[in-house]
Amino acid sequence: MSTFKIAVLMLWCLACHSVWAQDKQLNIYSARHYPTDEALYGDFTHATGIKINRVDADDAGILARLKAEGTSSPADVILLVDASRLWRAEVDGLFLPIKSKVLEEAVPTQLHAKPSDNGGVAWFGLSTRARVVVFDKLKYSKADFDSYEKLADPKYKGQLCIRSGSHPYNLSLFGAMTEHLGAAKTEAWLKGLVDNMARSPKGGDTDQIKAVAAGECGVAVTNTYYLARMMRSTNPADKAATEKIGVVFPNQSNWGTHVNIAGGAVAKNAKNVDNAIKFLEYLVSPTAQNHFANGNNEWPVAKGVSFDNPALKSMNGGSFKSELIPISAVGMNQVKVQQMLDRVGFK
Ligand code: FE
Fold it and tell me: How far, in Å, from the CA of 232 to the mean position of ligand 1?
């Protein structure tokens, strides 16, 4: 073979290798800070041969980075952990709306973005977390807090522990309450929560659970996965703490308990769009959904997926009625909610 032919062949090989390498990879920006997700990524690569490159940051960091990178962003898939943040990113034009029968069939309508005019959907919920009430079993029973409204009852003055009102998990809950009750009643309810606080808001959800167990407050609000994590902890102190508290899924007799989502989207400037869609579709498969439930104690988003997580199963028998309002409406209410919080002095 002539030197020329060898050179051409080498160039061709390099070119096809780089095309292949591009085809077989996926760049993910993830706010899912859960070590148990590693197995999930590994299984996807094993099944498809698509290599995953991951950037981990918090939601705000990811959104800032996407904006700074603009059209040269290498991100293909974005994973965020709150409905109002997904909504914000959609409004800021950071996502590429996609059409996927698999995702649309698996994810309930209220847990994905509203389809755009051409039918594309900007983001999909991939797992849910319920925002529940935990209480001191020595003092109270489930009936005391079977609705979110009851948390504002003056008879619980000095009993409530809750994280900052401005945290996205609370902004989403309060945004949902605004949908259910209307703005005026929600603001009065928020004022009632402030009046009932045992202490000024501080710490995360786990800190509120521990404060109830320690007797610092009688009742608190938490996402279910923090509670499940403590129930399954190998630390005896965590387990002992959870034995002192009861859990109630509020509003089962009317609109259902507030759920938030962790969700995913294809990035606006994704270079590996097909792989990105394939990955999101994989995340709603029974295997991946089971993984969310068992690995990170989240509720599967896909309909009819069975899971085996003793902590989740111990809560309300492992199932509950969740609210059906569109989760995107919750995001839309966040500015209004923040103004209410400022007015009632909810830090
Ligand atoms: Fe969290």
Answer: 16
Tokens of 181: 């009750």
According to CATH, where is 3.40.190.10 located in the chain? 3-127+260-315, 129-258+324-344
In the reported structure, the alpha carbon of residue 37 is separated from the centroid of ligand 1 by a whole-number distance in angstroms of 14
Residue 132 pairs in a beta bridge with: 222
Domain 3-127+260-315 fold is D-Maltodextrin-Binding Protein; domain 2 (3.40.190)
Query: In a structure prediction context, what are the per-residue pLDDT tens digits for the chain, which is 347 residues long?
Result: 555 555 555 555 444 444 444 579 999 999 997 888 889 999 999 999 999 999 999 999 999 999 999 999 999 999 999 998 999 999 999 999 999 999 999 999 999 999 999 999 999 999 999 999 999 999 999 999 999 999 999 999 999 999 999 999 999 999 999 999 999 999 999 999 999 999 999 999 999 999 999 999 999 999 999 999 999 999 999 999 999 999 999 999 999 999 999 999 999 999 999 999 999 999 999 999 999 999 899 999 998 888 889 999 999 888 999 999 998 889 899 999 999 999 999 99
The domain 129-258+324-344 having CATH identifier 3.40.190.10: the answer here is yes
Q: Extract the runs of DSSP E, i.e. beta strands, from the chain.
A: 25-30, 51-56, 77-80, 124-136, 160-161, 219-223, 245-248, 259-266, 299-300
Rounded to whole angstroms, the Cα distance separating 341 from 174 reads 10
Q: How far is the CA of 297 from the centre of ligand 1 (A)?
A: 11
pTM exceeding 0.85 = yes
